[in-house]
Design a protein that fits this description.
globular, Aste57867_11413 protein, transmembrane helix, 504 residues, MATE_fam, membrane, antiporter activity
């Protein structure tokens, strides 16, 4: 009897028992607050630059906003590679194929380095797009100048993204939290010195902002490498040195196929707001400046969401790589509940604390009046977007990028854009109309993501496929198995189902 009791105590608690849920919630939380802090600090670098530019003048702020509408569109290329690396490294780690984790790191570094070259060149031709946005010659020249100097940050940022994705896929998040926190203080000092100067030097003025960003972006990957690889030796378990397997054609094909699909998804999801920036330009420079501030606030809110969605993606990819669909579902439920609480807190902060928040970005009373009106609507849109981000991270862990493409294509371009234009421009509701359109569009994406995740797919089939791919010693040609995971129900008529099936 005593032996039976000991065996019972040794059994793992049921996944939805309070101890099991509490343990998973604790694991997610310990990752979440560090990732949120790191992301918040990293995005604060852009916010700090915006705040400094806002105090230089409305023209400078509007010019940087126009430049960012193009730069942001290019930045999602790096983001797509980061998503692929997190997914593939996480799946391999869950399958205990530690050598493959290091191979994905090397492949990410090699490919990102190559891809950075055309991205740098593209920065110098931002005016090709911007000339169709504004007829203000001075504003156009300032925006192009900002974009050209920002090109300096592309390569160091690519290295930082690769290292960060590799580490967090193994639940190693402390180094980036420390470095990104320190980088905030470095950014404040760099922006002040590069823009206003010191010790009798007058600084660079407007171009000091992108130069300060370049300085900080260069320090980040160097500091991360010294901290995580040289001092703490976090890489020894999964990377023992250079391997030519990182250029294996089959693995390279898998990596690029997943990344290209993620790129389409992220482009559809993010470029819609670059288009809305162009639409907002029709409302005048004051509304454009207000919209720029809102996007920077969104970036800070997104830092909170990423803090919860990233552990959700990592933990789910580990469970799927281990062929444990039940654990993946538990991770999703616990992570989504925690993330939902975070979105509620963000919305309350935006609504209740909008007064002090506005003064951080501008002292212009006209700008503050616009922001005071829009922030409650904006907070609603941001919160719904946060819920969508949480669930999308699970689809990323499943490598179901094509489904995300369909969801974003329909929700962003067939719902959000026409509704925003109709209410903001055609109906004359202005910036408020644009953001009510965002509420509708983000809501549509959240609903479609929920349907895809909990109705369309068989988690057991997906886990078996992910585990087989992650555990394989030799990578065969990747076959798209999303269609095999679809639940065979003839009555399904959702737009996601129809569009996904039509893609094959």
């Amino acid at each position: 009897m005593e032996t039976d009791k000991l065996l019972w105590l040794a059994r793992p608690a049921p996944l939805y028992s309070w101890p099991a849920v509490r343990e998973e919630a604790s694991t997610i939380w310990h990752m979440a607050w560090k990732i949120s802090l790191a992301t918040f600090c990293r995005l604060s670098v852009f916010t700090i630059s915006t705040a400094f530019l806002g105090h230089l003048g409305t023209k400078e702020l509007a010019a940087s906003a126009l430049a960012q509408s193009v730069i942001g569109a290019l930045r999602i290329v790096t983001w797509a590679f980061s998503t692929s690396m997190s997914t593939l490294c996480g799946q391999a780690y869950g399958a205990k194929n530690f050598e493959l984790v290091g191979i994905w790191l090397q492949m990410g570094v090699v490919v990102l380095t190559v891809v950075s070259i055309p991205l740098v060149v593209a920065h110098f031709y931002a005016f090709v797009v911007l000339q169709y946005v504004t007829s203000d010659v001075e504003l156009l020249e300032m925006a192009q100048t900002f974009a050209s100097y920002t090109a300096l940050s592309v390569v160091p940022n690519a290295f930082y993204v690769a290292l960060r994705s590799y580490l967090r896929a193994q639940q190693i998040v402390t180094p980036t939290a420390v470095i990104d926190t320190a980088n905030v203080f470095l950014s404040i000092g760099a922006n002040y010195v590069f823009i206003y100067g010191c010790f009798g030097w007058s600084g660079f003025g407007f171009i000091g902002s992108p130069l300060a960003s370049f300085f900080c972006t260069t320090v980040q990957p160097l500091a991360l490498y010294l901290y995580a690889f040289v001092v703490c030796q976090y890489h020894t378990k999964t990377w023992g040195g250079w391997s030519w397997q990182c250029v294996d054609p089959a693995r390279l094909k898998q990596f690029l196929a997943l990344t290209s699909t993620f790129l389409i998804y992220l482009a559809l999801d993010e470029w819609i707001y670059n288009v809305l920036t162009i639409v907002a330009a029709q409302l005048g420079s004051l509304n454009l400046a207000a919209n720029s501030i809102l996007f920077n606030i969104w970036g800070l809110a997104y830092g909170v969401y990423l803090g919860f969605s990233t552990p959700l993606q990592v933990r789910a990819s580990h469970a799927l790589g281990a062929n444990d669909p039940a654990k993946a579902k538990q991770v999703t439920l616990v992570g989504f509940c925690l993330g939902s609480i975070a979105t509620l807190v963000v919305m309350l902060v935006l609504v209740v604390g909008r007064g002090p928040l506005m003064t951080v970005f501008t002292q212009d009373p006209d700008l503050q009046a616009i922001l005071a009106t829009i922030l409650p609507i904006f907070g609603f849109a941001v919160s719904i977007s946060g819920l969508h981000v949480m669930l999308s991270s699970v689809l990323e862990a499943m490598s179901l990028a094509l489904t995300l493409v369909v969801v974003s294509g329909v929700g962003s371009w067939l719902v959000l854009l026409p509704v925003s234009y109709a209410w903001g421009i055609a109906s004359g509701f202005g910036l408020a109309g644009l953001w009510w359109g965002s509420v509708v569009g983000e809501g549509a994406k959240f609903v479609m993501t929920s349907v895809a995740l909990f109705w369309l797919y068989d988690w057991s089939e997906i886990a078996a496929r992910v585990a087989a791919e992650a555990a394989a010693d030799a990578m065969d040609e990747q076959v798209d198995l999303e269609n095999e995971a679809l639940v065979a129900v003839d009555s399904m008529k959702s737009p996601v189902s129809a569009a996904t099936n039509a893609s094959y």
